[in-house]
Write a structure and sequence with these properties.
With 392 residues, the protein is an alpha/beta fold. It has ten helices and nine strands. About 1% of the residues have low confidence. The structure holds beta-D-galactopyranuronic acid (GTR).
């Protein structure tokens, strides 16, 4: 009996240790990041041509196969319907459109609802922010009965940009039991494939359908869309921007593990933890890397690099150690190498900057805001300044 108890206790302690989170920099394991500028065949990638023809497609495949799953490219039909509009929204400041995007495939239809405000004073097509909304729909209220820093439409309007959002649940409910009841109804074969996309892949797919809509809206300059996401939405924003080069800029706010933070560091949230808590987010294949980061043929610096030469804004919050601010900054820094191939130099310092010290010059922008895991008016003010530098 005593022996059995001992074995049981040891087992429990080992399991707790495996799942325990590390917040101690001195306990980060020694790791070697996969080289973003060396191909599978050990070819050194030294120019844009080799990057775009050899290494970029290789890395995209690595993320499809091992992490987010493959994104289906085709569908039978897409339709856009303006369900509601108000030319005098926000006391005349904005033109509101609520658009329903209906996409059909395989005799199934999914509806993605978009809320869009366009500044009325600007008479030509405007650049737009698009948020992948992973929080309450009240954050993107068309009536503006709620005003929150998560989607500060008034602030964005005043800066001369349009702002849009769709809710993740329209594309894939954020729930391990029901995530199939969205985009995946159109692509049921994905559910049986180990490299099939799940919720985050579905959200990414939906963002591209909103881009399909922007391309038809004469009020929007579809060549200037800034895709924005917070946390799980920020993981998705990176994944969309990596694949769909129509997005001009990407914001990934506090996106943490399997977002902008390096997994090899095992600091804060780990792959095992994320796959256990959110088994419906990533492809089945990703579970092979639970507690096995060493085997990863990639890391998140390579996901950021896939967006080059387009700008990426990465953030952290000082109290959000779960999302590993240091590992996030290191990932952005590593991605600089690929921007270098395009002769683009970032202004980022060599080590993580002080809190509330944004480095906003494109192509790679970063800040670590004081405070909690969130997206705020302060964060948006920096995104707007960066977009201004890039687009104006
Ligand atoms: C956490 C999760 C993070 C992040 C966050 C969020 O519970 O562990 O990876 O995605 O949720 O989306 O706010």
């Amino acid at each position: 009996m005593k022996k059995l108890l001992f074995v049981l206790l040891t087992f429990m302690l080992v399991s707790i240790d495996l799942i325990a989170q590390n917040y101690d920099e001195s306990k980060v394991p020694i790791y070697t990041l996969p080289n973003v500028l060396e191909s599978k065949n050990k070819k050194k990638i030294a120019n844009v041509k080799d990057w775009e023809n050899i290494r970029r497609p290789e890395i995209l495949t690595l993320f499809e196969e091992n992490v987010y799953g493959k994104t289906p490219k085709s569908f039978d039909k897409i339709n856009f319907k303006v369900k509601n509009e108000n030319k005098n929204a926000m006391n005349g400041k904005a033109y509101l459109k609520e658009v329903e995007i209906a996409v059909s495939n395989n005799n199934e239809t999914v509806l993605i609802n978009v809320v869009l405000f366009v500044p009325s004073r600007i008479k030509k097509p405007v650049p737009a922010f698009l948020l992948i909304n992973n929080r309450g729909k009240n954050n993107t209220s068309p009536t503006r009965d709620t005003i929150s820093g998560f989607w500060p439409a008034e602030q964005v309007m005043d800066a001369g940009y349009a702002i849009a959002a769709f809710h993740v649940n329209d594309a894939a409910p954020d729930d391990k039991n029901t995530f199939q009841n969205g985009v995946l109804r159109l692509y049921p074969e994905q559910l049986n494939a180990d490299n099939g996309m799940k919720a985050i892949g579905s959200w990414a797919w939906a963002a591209s359908r909103v881009m399909d809509y922007f391309e038809t809206d004469k009020h929007i300059d579809a060549s200037k869309i800034i895709l924005t996401g917070h946390s799980r939405g920020g993981k998705a924003s990176l994944w969309v921007a990596a694949q769909d080069t129509r997005f001009a800029m990407c914001v990934t706010n506090c996106s943490g593990n399997t977002g902008a933070a390096l997994s090899h560091r095992r600091f804060g949230e780990t792959i095992e933890v994320i796959n256990t808590t959110f088994p419906h987010w990533f492809a089945n294949n990703y579970k092979k890397f639970n507690n096995n980061e060493k085997a990863l043929p990639l890391d998140q610096h390579m996901l950021i690099a896939l967006i080059a030469p387009r700008p990426v804004y990465v953030t952290n919050a000082s109290q959000d150690l779960w999302a590993d601010p240091v590992g996030t900054f290191k990932a952005v820094k590593e991605a600089e190498k690929v921007y270098g191939l395009y002769q683009l130099q970032s202004s980022l310092p060599d080590s993580p900057p002080a809190i509330n010290t944004p480095f906003i010059k494109p192509p790679l922008a970063y800040h670590n805001r004081e405070g909690k895991h969130d997206m705020t008016f302060y964060d948006w003010a920096q995104f707007i300044k960066t977009a201004d530098l890039y687009f104006k």
